[in-house]
Specification:
By secondary structure, the chain is α/β, with parallel strands linked by helices. It has 14 helices and 14 strands. The protein folds into two domains: 4-18 and 270-368, Aspartate Aminotransferase, domain 1 (Alpha-Beta Complex); 24-266, 3-Layer(aba) Sandwich (Aspartate Aminotransferase, domain 2), CATH 3.40.640.10. The strands form four sheets. The chain has a seven-stranded mixed β-sheet with strand order 2-10-9-8-5-3-4, sandwiched between helices. It has a three-stranded antiparallel β-sheet with strand order 11-14-13, with helices on one face. The structure holds pyridoxal-5'-phosphate. Pyridoxal-5'-phosphate (PLP) binds next to α4.
Protein backbone atom coordinates (compact mmCIF):
# COMPACT_ATOMS: atom_id res chain seq x y z
CA UNK A 1 0.00 0.00 0.00
CA UNK A 2 2.65 2.47 1.02
CA UNK A 3 4.30 2.03 -2.37
CA UNK A 4 1.13 3.05 -4.14
CA UNK A 5 0.76 6.16 -2.00
CA UNK A 6 4.41 7.06 -2.58
CA UNK A 7 3.57 7.28 -6.29
CA UNK A 8 0.94 9.99 -5.78
CA UNK A 9 1.78 13.28 -7.46
CA UNK A 10 -0.25 16.43 -6.89
CA UNK A 11 -2.67 17.15 -9.73
CA UNK A 12 -3.81 20.66 -10.51
CA UNK A 13 -7.54 20.06 -10.07
CA UNK A 14 -9.36 22.27 -12.59
CA UNK A 15 -12.39 20.09 -13.17
CA UNK A 16 -15.88 20.09 -11.64
CA UNK A 17 -14.49 18.92 -8.26
CA UNK A 18 -12.60 17.89 -6.29
CA UNK A 19 -10.67 21.17 -6.18
CA UNK A 20 -7.18 21.94 -4.85
CA UNK A 21 -7.02 21.55 -1.07
CA UNK A 22 -5.61 24.23 1.26
CA UNK A 23 -2.29 23.25 2.94
CA UNK A 24 -3.90 24.06 6.30
CA UNK A 25 -6.63 21.54 5.50
CA UNK A 26 -4.15 18.76 4.66
CA UNK A 27 -2.41 19.53 7.97
CA UNK A 28 -5.73 19.29 9.81
CA UNK A 29 -6.32 15.77 8.44
CA UNK A 30 -3.10 14.62 10.06
CA UNK A 31 -4.00 15.92 13.57
CA UNK A 32 -4.55 13.31 16.30
CA UNK A 33 -7.89 11.54 16.15
CA UNK A 34 -9.78 11.99 19.42
CA UNK A 35 -13.13 10.63 20.60
CA UNK A 36 -16.33 11.79 18.94
CA UNK A 37 -17.76 12.67 22.39
CA UNK A 38 -14.57 14.30 23.70
CA UNK A 39 -15.41 17.80 24.98
CA UNK A 40 -12.55 19.21 22.87
CA UNK A 41 -14.09 17.71 19.74
CA UNK A 42 -17.46 19.20 20.68
CA UNK A 43 -15.78 22.64 20.75
CA UNK A 44 -14.57 22.03 17.18
CA UNK A 45 -18.07 20.89 16.13
CA UNK A 46 -19.58 24.09 17.53
CA UNK A 47 -17.01 26.23 15.71
CA UNK A 48 -17.79 24.44 12.43
CA UNK A 49 -21.51 25.06 12.90
CA UNK A 50 -20.92 28.78 13.53
CA UNK A 51 -18.72 29.18 10.43
CA UNK A 52 -21.22 27.23 8.32
CA UNK A 53 -24.02 29.56 9.44
CA UNK A 54 -21.94 32.55 8.34
CA UNK A 55 -20.95 31.18 4.94
CA UNK A 56 -24.48 29.88 4.22
CA UNK A 57 -26.09 33.16 5.35
CA UNK A 58 -28.46 31.64 7.86
CA UNK A 59 -29.42 31.78 11.51
CA UNK A 60 -30.83 28.23 11.33
CA UNK A 61 -29.84 26.31 14.46
CA UNK A 62 -29.74 23.09 12.46
CA UNK A 63 -26.71 23.82 10.29
CA UNK A 64 -24.37 20.84 10.38
CA UNK A 65 -22.09 18.73 8.17
CA UNK A 66 -23.63 15.35 7.35
CA UNK A 67 -21.31 12.36 6.93
CA UNK A 68 -21.00 11.69 3.21
CA UNK A 69 -20.45 13.68 0.02
CA UNK A 70 -22.76 16.27 -1.56
CA UNK A 71 -25.19 13.58 -2.69
CA UNK A 72 -25.67 12.56 0.95
CA UNK A 73 -26.75 16.17 1.54
CA UNK A 74 -29.25 15.84 -1.32
CA UNK A 75 -30.52 12.56 0.09
CA UNK A 76 -30.80 14.12 3.59
CA UNK A 77 -32.88 17.01 2.24
CA UNK A 78 -35.39 14.69 0.57
CA UNK A 79 -35.48 11.71 2.91
CA UNK A 80 -36.25 13.78 6.01
CA UNK A 81 -38.72 16.22 4.51
CA UNK A 82 -40.71 14.13 2.01
CA UNK A 83 -43.36 11.54 2.74
CA UNK A 84 -44.82 9.11 0.21
CA UNK A 85 -47.40 10.87 -1.96
CA UNK A 86 -46.03 14.38 -1.32
CA UNK A 87 -45.98 16.57 -4.40
CA UNK A 88 -42.50 17.82 -5.23
CA UNK A 89 -41.54 20.26 -7.99
CA UNK A 90 -37.99 20.06 -9.31
CA UNK A 91 -36.68 22.82 -11.58
CA UNK A 92 -34.22 21.07 -13.84
CA UNK A 93 -31.55 22.28 -16.25
CA UNK A 94 -28.76 19.76 -15.83
CA UNK A 95 -27.48 16.55 -14.25
CA UNK A 96 -28.05 17.54 -10.63
CA UNK A 97 -31.70 18.52 -11.13
CA UNK A 98 -32.14 15.09 -12.75
CA UNK A 99 -30.47 13.45 -9.75
CA UNK A 100 -32.94 15.22 -7.42
CA UNK A 101 -35.83 13.80 -9.47
CA UNK A 102 -34.40 10.30 -9.02
CA UNK A 103 -33.86 10.75 -5.28
CA UNK A 104 -37.35 12.20 -4.65
CA UNK A 105 -39.02 9.60 -6.89
CA UNK A 106 -37.43 6.71 -4.97
CA UNK A 107 -39.05 8.04 -1.78
CA UNK A 108 -42.51 7.78 -3.29
CA UNK A 109 -42.94 11.52 -3.90
CA UNK A 110 -45.11 12.57 -6.83
CA UNK A 111 -42.48 14.45 -8.80
CA UNK A 112 -43.23 17.18 -11.30
CA UNK A 113 -40.15 18.22 -13.26
CA UNK A 114 -40.08 21.58 -14.97
CA UNK A 115 -37.28 21.23 -17.52
CA UNK A 116 -35.17 23.97 -19.10
CA UNK A 117 -32.61 23.66 -21.88
CA UNK A 118 -29.16 22.65 -20.58
CA UNK A 119 -26.85 25.65 -20.66
CA UNK A 120 -29.69 28.11 -19.98
CA UNK A 121 -31.09 29.18 -16.59
CA UNK A 122 -34.44 28.42 -14.97
CA UNK A 123 -37.01 31.05 -16.05
CA UNK A 124 -38.99 32.46 -13.09
CA UNK A 125 -42.08 33.25 -15.23
CA UNK A 126 -42.34 29.55 -16.13
CA UNK A 127 -41.96 28.61 -12.46
CA UNK A 128 -44.74 31.05 -11.51
CA UNK A 129 -47.07 29.38 -14.01
CA UNK A 130 -46.14 25.87 -12.84
CA UNK A 131 -46.77 26.77 -9.19
CA UNK A 132 -50.47 27.26 -10.10
CA UNK A 133 -50.56 23.47 -10.57
CA UNK A 134 -49.64 23.04 -6.88
CA UNK A 135 -49.72 23.04 -3.95
CA UNK A 136 -46.29 21.44 -3.67
CA UNK A 137 -44.68 20.40 -0.42
CA UNK A 138 -41.16 21.03 -1.74
CA UNK A 139 -39.85 23.12 -4.64
CA UNK A 140 -36.19 22.35 -5.43
CA UNK A 141 -33.55 23.96 -7.61
CA UNK A 142 -29.77 23.80 -8.09
CA UNK A 143 -28.05 27.17 -7.47
CA UNK A 144 -24.91 26.42 -9.49
CA UNK A 145 -25.52 23.68 -12.10
CA UNK A 146 -22.09 22.09 -12.28
CA UNK A 147 -22.97 20.08 -15.38
CA UNK A 148 -23.51 23.20 -17.51
CA UNK A 149 -21.90 26.19 -15.74
CA UNK A 150 -25.19 28.04 -15.28
CA UNK A 151 -26.30 30.06 -12.23
CA UNK A 152 -30.02 29.84 -11.53
CA UNK A 153 -31.97 32.89 -10.23
CA UNK A 154 -32.58 31.46 -6.77
CA UNK A 155 -33.71 34.73 -5.16
CA UNK A 156 -36.41 35.35 -7.78
CA UNK A 157 -37.58 31.72 -7.50
CA UNK A 158 -37.65 31.96 -3.70
CA UNK A 159 -39.84 35.07 -3.91
CA UNK A 160 -42.37 33.00 -5.90
CA UNK A 161 -42.19 29.84 -3.78
CA UNK A 162 -42.43 31.44 -0.33
CA UNK A 163 -46.09 32.59 -0.54
CA UNK A 164 -47.20 29.07 -1.63
CA UNK A 165 -46.15 27.55 1.72
CA UNK A 166 -43.90 24.95 0.06
CA UNK A 167 -40.47 24.23 1.51
CA UNK A 168 -37.86 25.81 -0.75
CA UNK A 169 -34.80 23.60 -1.28
CA UNK A 170 -31.59 24.89 -2.89
CA UNK A 171 -28.57 22.74 -3.87
CA UNK A 172 -25.47 24.84 -3.10
CA UNK A 173 -22.84 22.15 -3.60
CA UNK A 174 -20.84 24.11 -6.17
CA UNK A 175 -21.87 27.65 -5.23
CA UNK A 176 -20.95 27.66 -1.53
CA UNK A 177 -17.72 29.60 -0.99
CA UNK A 178 -17.51 30.79 -4.61
CA UNK A 179 -20.51 33.10 -5.01
CA UNK A 180 -22.82 34.62 -2.39
CA UNK A 181 -25.14 32.12 -0.69
CA UNK A 182 -27.76 33.90 1.42
CA UNK A 183 -30.14 31.19 2.54
CA UNK A 184 -32.34 33.26 4.85
CA UNK A 185 -32.62 36.18 2.41
CA UNK A 186 -33.67 33.77 -0.36
CA UNK A 187 -36.38 32.36 1.90
CA UNK A 188 -34.84 28.90 1.50
CA UNK A 189 -35.89 26.22 3.99
CA UNK A 190 -33.44 23.51 3.01
CA UNK A 191 -29.91 23.75 1.69
CA UNK A 192 -27.05 21.32 1.25
CA UNK A 193 -23.49 21.52 -0.05
CA UNK A 194 -20.31 19.46 -0.29
CA UNK A 195 -16.75 19.94 0.88
CA UNK A 196 -14.77 19.31 -2.32
CA UNK A 197 -15.94 22.18 -4.50
CA UNK A 198 -15.36 25.81 -3.43
CA UNK A 199 -14.62 24.86 0.20
CA UNK A 200 -11.32 23.31 -0.99
CA UNK A 201 -11.50 20.36 1.34
CA UNK A 202 -11.38 16.68 0.31
CA UNK A 203 -14.75 15.04 -0.41
CA UNK A 204 -16.48 13.50 2.60
CA UNK A 205 -18.89 15.90 4.31
CA UNK A 206 -22.13 17.56 3.25
CA UNK A 207 -23.06 20.78 5.05
CA UNK A 208 -26.85 20.88 5.49
CA UNK A 209 -29.14 23.58 6.89
CA UNK A 210 -32.87 23.41 7.69
CA UNK A 211 -35.28 26.21 8.66
CA UNK A 212 -37.77 26.18 11.52
CA UNK A 213 -40.58 25.53 9.02
CA UNK A 214 -38.69 22.51 7.71
CA UNK A 215 -38.11 21.15 11.22
CA UNK A 216 -41.84 21.56 11.94
CA UNK A 217 -42.54 19.31 8.95
CA UNK A 218 -39.98 16.79 10.22
CA UNK A 219 -41.60 16.75 13.68
CA UNK A 220 -45.07 16.20 12.24
CA UNK A 221 -44.17 13.30 9.93
CA UNK A 222 -46.74 10.51 9.82
CA UNK A 223 -44.02 7.88 9.23
CA UNK A 224 -40.44 7.45 10.46
CA UNK A 225 -37.67 8.84 8.25
CA UNK A 226 -37.07 5.82 6.01
CA UNK A 227 -33.25 6.05 6.21
CA UNK A 228 -31.69 5.44 9.63
CA UNK A 229 -28.23 6.84 8.82
CA UNK A 230 -29.45 10.22 7.55
CA UNK A 231 -32.31 10.72 10.03
CA UNK A 232 -31.91 14.34 11.20
CA UNK A 233 -34.31 13.88 14.12
CA UNK A 234 -31.66 11.62 15.70
CA UNK A 235 -28.52 13.30 14.34
CA UNK A 236 -29.64 16.66 15.78
CA UNK A 237 -29.21 15.20 19.27
CA UNK A 238 -25.54 14.59 18.58
CA UNK A 239 -24.81 18.03 17.10
CA UNK A 240 -26.88 20.06 19.57
CA UNK A 241 -27.66 20.49 23.24
CA UNK A 242 -25.90 19.23 26.33
CA UNK A 243 -26.49 15.47 26.13
CA UNK A 244 -24.73 14.88 22.74
CA UNK A 245 -26.19 11.44 22.19
CA UNK A 246 -24.19 8.96 20.12
CA UNK A 247 -25.77 8.26 16.74
CA UNK A 248 -22.90 7.24 14.45
CA UNK A 249 -19.19 7.97 14.90
CA UNK A 250 -18.49 11.35 13.33
CA UNK A 251 -15.69 11.35 10.71
CA UNK A 252 -13.46 13.17 13.22
CA UNK A 253 -10.55 14.16 10.99
CA UNK A 254 -12.84 15.23 8.16
CA UNK A 255 -14.51 17.60 10.62
CA UNK A 256 -11.04 19.00 11.44
CA UNK A 257 -10.46 19.42 7.71
CA UNK A 258 -13.73 21.27 7.19
CA UNK A 259 -12.93 23.44 10.21
CA UNK A 260 -9.54 24.37 8.69
CA UNK A 261 -11.03 25.11 5.24
CA UNK A 262 -13.74 27.32 6.72
CA UNK A 263 -11.12 29.16 8.81
CA UNK A 264 -9.04 29.79 5.64
CA UNK A 265 -12.09 31.17 3.84
CA UNK A 266 -13.06 33.39 6.79
CA UNK A 267 -9.48 34.67 7.07
CA UNK A 268 -9.55 35.76 3.43
CA UNK A 269 -13.07 37.17 3.87
CA UNK A 270 -16.14 36.05 1.93
CA UNK A 271 -16.31 39.16 -0.27
CA UNK A 272 -12.62 38.83 -1.15
CA UNK A 273 -13.08 35.15 -2.00
CA UNK A 274 -16.04 35.92 -4.27
CA UNK A 275 -14.09 38.74 -5.96
CA UNK A 276 -11.14 36.39 -6.53
CA UNK A 277 -13.43 33.82 -8.19
CA UNK A 278 -14.85 36.52 -10.49
CA UNK A 279 -11.41 37.88 -11.36
CA UNK A 280 -10.01 34.41 -12.15
CA UNK A 281 -13.06 33.66 -14.29
CA UNK A 282 -12.48 36.86 -16.30
CA UNK A 283 -8.79 36.05 -16.69
CA UNK A 284 -9.59 32.53 -17.88
CA UNK A 285 -12.33 33.65 -20.29
CA UNK A 286 -9.97 36.24 -21.81
CA UNK A 287 -7.14 33.73 -22.20
CA UNK A 288 -9.45 31.15 -23.76
CA UNK A 289 -10.68 33.82 -26.17
CA UNK A 290 -7.08 34.47 -27.21
CA UNK A 291 -6.77 30.74 -27.98
CA UNK A 292 -9.86 30.98 -30.21
CA UNK A 293 -12.11 29.21 -27.70
CA UNK A 294 -15.53 30.47 -26.65
CA UNK A 295 -17.68 30.08 -23.56
CA UNK A 296 -20.79 27.90 -23.87
CA UNK A 297 -23.03 29.86 -21.47
CA UNK A 298 -24.15 33.44 -22.07
CA UNK A 299 -22.43 36.00 -19.88
CA UNK A 300 -25.31 37.07 -17.56
CA UNK A 301 -25.80 33.61 -16.06
CA UNK A 302 -22.24 32.20 -16.17
CA UNK A 303 -20.75 30.73 -13.04
CA UNK A 304 -17.24 31.94 -12.19
CA UNK A 305 -16.19 28.61 -10.63
CA UNK A 306 -17.39 26.33 -13.43
CA UNK A 307 -16.53 27.38 -16.95
CA UNK A 308 -18.20 25.51 -19.81
CA UNK A 309 -16.06 25.91 -22.93
CA UNK A 310 -17.21 24.95 -26.41
CA UNK A 311 -14.87 22.38 -27.96
CA UNK A 312 -14.05 23.32 -31.58
CA UNK A 313 -14.97 20.68 -34.21
CA UNK A 314 -11.34 20.18 -35.14
CA UNK A 315 -10.19 19.40 -31.60
CA UNK A 316 -10.00 15.89 -30.09
CA UNK A 317 -11.88 16.23 -26.76
CA UNK A 318 -10.59 13.13 -24.95
CA UNK A 319 -7.11 13.46 -26.48
CA UNK A 320 -6.60 16.97 -25.11
CA UNK A 321 -7.91 16.07 -21.66
CA UNK A 322 -5.71 13.01 -21.46
CA UNK A 323 -2.59 14.96 -22.54
CA UNK A 324 -3.36 17.69 -20.02
CA UNK A 325 -3.43 15.11 -17.25
CA UNK A 326 -0.50 12.94 -18.35
CA UNK A 327 1.93 15.56 -19.58
CA UNK A 328 0.95 18.61 -17.54
CA UNK A 329 -0.65 17.17 -14.40
CA UNK A 330 -3.86 19.16 -14.93
CA UNK A 331 -7.36 17.75 -14.69
CA UNK A 332 -10.31 19.37 -16.48
CA UNK A 333 -13.81 17.93 -16.85
CA UNK A 334 -15.68 16.55 -19.83
CA UNK A 335 -19.27 17.35 -20.80
CA UNK A 336 -22.07 15.22 -19.34
CA UNK A 337 -25.25 13.85 -20.96
CA UNK A 338 -26.29 15.89 -23.99
CA UNK A 339 -23.15 18.05 -23.62
CA UNK A 340 -20.69 15.12 -23.80
CA UNK A 341 -18.09 15.86 -26.48
CA UNK A 342 -19.45 19.40 -26.87
CA UNK A 343 -17.93 21.17 -23.86
CA UNK A 344 -15.06 21.06 -21.43
CA UNK A 345 -15.77 22.02 -17.85
CA UNK A 346 -12.97 24.06 -16.34
CA UNK A 347 -13.25 24.50 -12.60
CA UNK A 348 -11.96 27.53 -10.72
CA UNK A 349 -13.14 26.38 -7.34
CA UNK A 350 -11.80 27.75 -4.07
CA UNK A 351 -8.04 27.38 -3.70
CA UNK A 352 -7.79 26.41 -7.41
CA UNK A 353 -8.83 29.95 -8.42
CA UNK A 354 -5.34 31.53 -8.44
CA UNK A 355 -3.61 33.46 -11.26
CA UNK A 356 -0.68 31.01 -11.53
CA UNK A 357 -3.09 28.09 -12.01
CA UNK A 358 -5.01 29.91 -14.75
CA UNK A 359 -1.73 30.76 -16.54
CA UNK A 360 -0.52 27.17 -16.24
CA UNK A 361 -3.73 25.79 -17.73
CA UNK A 362 -3.81 28.29 -20.61
CA UNK A 363 -0.21 27.49 -21.57
CA UNK A 364 -0.82 23.73 -21.40
CA UNK A 365 -4.05 23.98 -23.35
CA UNK A 366 -2.33 26.01 -26.08
CA UNK A 367 0.34 23.29 -26.39
CA UNK A 368 -2.19 20.43 -26.40
CA UNK A 369 -4.38 21.98 -29.08
CA UNK A 370 -1.48 22.61 -31.54
C1 LIG B 1 -20.90 17.68 -7.07
C2 LIG B 1 -22.36 18.02 -6.99
C3 LIG B 1 -23.28 17.20 -6.32
C4 LIG B 1 -22.94 15.84 -5.78
O1 LIG B 1 -21.94 15.86 -4.86
P1 LIG B 1 -21.01 14.58 -4.61
O2 LIG B 1 -20.04 15.12 -3.64
O3 LIG B 1 -20.42 14.20 -5.93
O4 LIG B 1 -21.86 13.51 -4.03
C5 LIG B 1 -24.60 17.64 -6.21
N1 LIG B 1 -24.98 18.81 -6.75
C6 LIG B 1 -24.13 19.61 -7.42
C7 LIG B 1 -24.61 20.89 -7.99
C8 LIG B 1 -22.80 19.23 -7.56
O5 LIG B 1 -21.96 20.01 -8.24
Amino acid sequence: MADLLDGLKPTLLMGPGPSCVFDETYAALAKPTIGHLDPYFIKIMDAVKADLQTIIGTKNRLTIPMSGTGSAGMETAFVNFTEPGDRVLILTNGVFGKRMQDVAGRLGARVDALEFEWGTPVVPEAVEKQLEQGPYSIVAVVHAETSTGVENPVQAIGDLVKPTGALYLVDCVTSLGGIPVTMDAWGADLLYSGTQKCLSCPPGLAPVSASGQALEKLKNRKSKVPNWYLDLSMIMNYWEGNSRAYHHTAPINMVYALYASLRCIMAEGLEAAFARHRAMHRKLAQGLGELGLSMYVREECRLPMLNAVTIPESVDDAGVRSRLLKEYGIEIGSGLGPLAGKIWRIGLMGHTARPANVDRLLAALAACMK
